[in-house]
Amino acid sequence: MEPMAWVLLMMNIAHWLKPVQSRDFTMKDIIQLHPSTTPHPGGFKCFTCQDAADNYECNRWAPDVYCPQDTKYCYTVHMMDNKGHSVAVTKRCATLKDCLFTGCADITDNGRRVCSSCCEGNICNVQVPKNESNAIFSSTSPLISSSRRLRPATLSCIILISSFILFTS
To answer: What is the four-CA torsion angle of 101, 140, 142, 119, rounded to 10 degrees?
Structure first.
């Protein structure tokens, strides 16, 4: 076979082979979902699905709707087999009460593992929790608010006075 024919053949083969695309969503995908107006102040969206086969299928078919006004977080439950492969993914809007228990647990009867997480923010539940390091509750605002917070200057004075009393005694 002539060298030129060989090069043309290789170029055609390279053109036919397409790179495999990731099954996870990227920031580019999310930017397309970003809202321009909200139905109520503080309105946000979560990926929502019930018992999807994996994270890609959940995110791919998630309806593009706003969460109810009484919710503030996105909740995700990820069930995996004993090899760590997805069995089921459920995502939904959630209240603080729904998010009190996050983490991972082994289901001993069938060797499966379930991890759950909660997050606060628009479409923050892109990924699924797979282990204890990402099966967490991440919040951007304080969970407990108090009008009697100590100001930094007051806190510094308390520390200085306590240190003085401790070292002079």
So the answer is: -10
Identify whether 5 is part of a domain.
Answer: no
Task: Output the average pLDDT for the chain.
Answer: 79
In a domain, 39, yes or no: no
CA–CA gap between residue 44 and residue 125 (Å, rounded)? 12
The per-residue pLDDT for 32 is: 61
Q: What is the CATH number of the domain that holds 53?
A: 2.10.60.10
User: Residue 101: which domain range?
Assistant: 45-141
DSSP-assigned states of every residue in 62-101: ----BPPTT--EEEEEEEE-TTS-EEEEEEEEE-TGGGS-
In angstroms, the Cα distances linking 80 to 52, 88, 90 are: 12, 7, 12
| Predicted pLDDT at 6 | 64
Q: Which residues, at least 6 apart from 77, have a Cβ–Cβ distance to it below 8 Å?
A: 88, 89, 90, 91, 114, 115, 116
The model's pLDDT over 127-164, given as tens digits with 9 standing for 90+, comes to 999 999 999 999 887 765 544 444 444 444 445 454 44
Looking at the 3D structure of the chain, how many domains does it have?
1
Is 15 inside a domain boundary? no
